[in-house]
Design brief:
single chain, 255 residues, alpha/beta, Rossmann fold, 9 helices
Length: 255
């Protein structure tokens, strides 16, 4: 069966062609360029924060409490690491410092989660991208990063029966933290029975990521957590698309 890889970026400043660099890395590994679709919603999460807050009321207590609770979870997860893995000063600094490290990304995560207008617009892009990919091949491999893993997860809960998904890859996914904060449940919706494998790549020094197996039921498909040593710095460790191990997993999923 011919496979199409679907890239879904995370929070941050991304241009429409963001996926070309990891695609070039995959082409080098595979010896041929795979069919690919890049789902882009960066313009929907622009840095025009003042206008967005006025339109979407993202400055309320609910959002502020979410950001504070998420930052505390980041601190808690770092504190739970074995001492030999805490080789960066950020791990022993207060939660406020960690919150500032991830503030920009967390603002965009909050916008997606708490603004129905933004949520619906992003989901439309996701569905359109999947439909485009389905017209290019028989099976899909979804490579979703960070917030993009939440976007893809939300979409697949509804639309998985309409897609032939060989592998769903989540890279640096915050889904465990969202689950623990009751922002998402472990209800997989339509995913079971319509997905070959869920492969979750995470680095323990990534402030967004965790293993997902303990949080989500895996039957009747396979949810496999794979540790990937991206970096030792909490910010750089979130950059999976430039990591050789990640590219090797993506290439294997396309074979």
């Amino acid at each position: 069966m011919s496979k199409v890889i679907v890239f879904v970026h995370g929070a941050g400043n991304y241009t429409k062609d963001y996926y070309q660099e990891p695609l070039a890395g995959l082409t080098e590994l595979l010896g041929t360029e795979p069919a690919a679709v890049g789902i882009w919603y960066g313009d929907l999460l622009s840095e025009n924060a003042a206008r967005r807050k006025k339109e979407t009321r993202l400055d309320g207590d609910e959002v502020a409490n979410f950001k504070a609770a998420f930052a505390m979870l980041v601190q808690s997860d770092f504190n739970a690491l074995p001492h030999h893995e805490r080789h960066n000063a950020a791990f022993i600094l207060p939660a406020q410092f960690l919150a500032e490290l991830i503030a920009s990304d967390l603002n965009q995560v909050a916008e997606y989660l708490f603004s129905s207008k933004t949520y619906n617009a992003v989901q439309t892009r996701m569905r359109d991208g999947l439909n485009k990919a389905l017209g290019m091949g028989e099976e899909l491999v979804i490579a979703s990063h960070s917030l993009g893993s939440v976007v893809a997860f939300d979409c697949l809960r509804e639309s998985a029966p309409n897609s032939n998904i060989a592998t769903f890859l989540t890279l640096g996914s915050p889904l465990s933290k969202l689950r623990r904060l009751s922002i998402r449940t472990n209800d997989l919706g339509a995913i079971p029975g319509n997905l070959g494998e869920w492969l979750n790549l995470y680095d323990t020094t990534d402030p967004m990521a965790n293993a997902l197996g303990p949080m989500f039921p895996s039957r009747p498909f396979r949810l496999r957590d794979v540790f990937v040593d991206v970096e030792t710095d909490p910010i750089r460790s979130h950059d999976y698309f430039h990591n050789e191990e990640t590219l090797a997993e993506l290439a294997a999923a396309l074979l």
